[in-house]
Amino acid sequence: MSKDTTQQTLWHMIKDIKFGMLTHRHANGMLHAHPLTAQNKSMDDGAVLYFFISKKSELGKSLQADGNVNVSFADPGKDSYVSLSGQAGLVEDPAKKHELFNPMVKAWFPGGEADPDLGLLEVHIGHAEYWDAKDSQMVQMFKMAKAAVTGKPPTDMGEHKEVQLSTGSNS
After folding, report:
1. Alpha carbon 12 to its chain's center
2. Could you report the per-residue pLDDT of 61-99, keeping only the tens digit for each?
3. Which of 26, 27, 57, 115 could be disulfide-bonded to 111 (CB atoms 3.0-4.6 Å)?
4. Cα–Cα distance between 24 and 82 in angstroms, integer?
5. In angstroms, rounded to a whole number, what is the distance separating the alpha carbons of residues 146 and 149?
């Protein structure tokens, strides 16, 4: 599967999921996760996701020290799950802020695009893994019941792929 096809598959799987859980390392070493909404309208050639965050939040401060992150998306109704790992960093890009800013973001940042606390977070995806079950839950249950009776693990439970997308370098 080509990089473009993989990115299209990933985007198709996550584009309608309202929140992704962004996990990062806190200053105390513990892993912390935050629900964030990807602001992209598509996944660009650079395999970058964009989020708006508060610069002065714990997340904003922690990412300045360590930009290694994971963003997980889940759609249990479709039995599809995506895990994206990469490098995150705050960028000052007024044109990109303007392009992505919307009324829902304004609810969190009443000062609008010029709000001094509005941070544009770029996540450069380096590694992706996804699971996508094509069968209905009834068919999956049948396959699992058959496996339990026969003692043989279930087969063809859906698509699972692991892909390298980029070097994860931050601009």
Report:
1. 12
2. 999 889 999 999 999 888 899 999 999 999 999 999 999
3. 115
4. 17
5. 5
Alpha-carbon distance 19 to 33, whole Å? 12
Instruction: Specify whether the CB–CB gap between 122 and 99 falls below 8 A.
Output: no
Taking only the tens place, the pLDDT of each residue in 127-152 is: 999 988 765 455 545 545 655 676 77
User: Is residue 163 helix, strand or coil?
Assistant: strand
> What HEC string does 81-135 produce?
EEEEEEEEEEECCHHHHHHHCCHHHHHHCCCHHHCCCEEEEEEEEEEEEEEECCC
List alpha helices for 22-81, DSSP H. 58-65
Sorted by where each starts, the structural domains of the chain and their CATH numbers stand as 3-164 (2.30.110.10)
One-letter amino acid of 107: A
Q: What residues contact residue 67 under an 8 Å CB cut-off, 6+ apart?
A: 87, 88, 89, 170
Tokens of 56: 């002065």
Long-range contacts, stretch 27-32, CB < 8 angstroms, 24+ apart? 27/61, 27/62, 27/65, 32/58, 32/59, 32/62
Q: CB–CB of 55/65 below 8 Å?
A: no
pLDDT by residue (tens digit) across 28-44?
999 999 999 999 988 76
What's the rounded Cα separation, in Å, for the pair 29 and 101?
Answer: 32
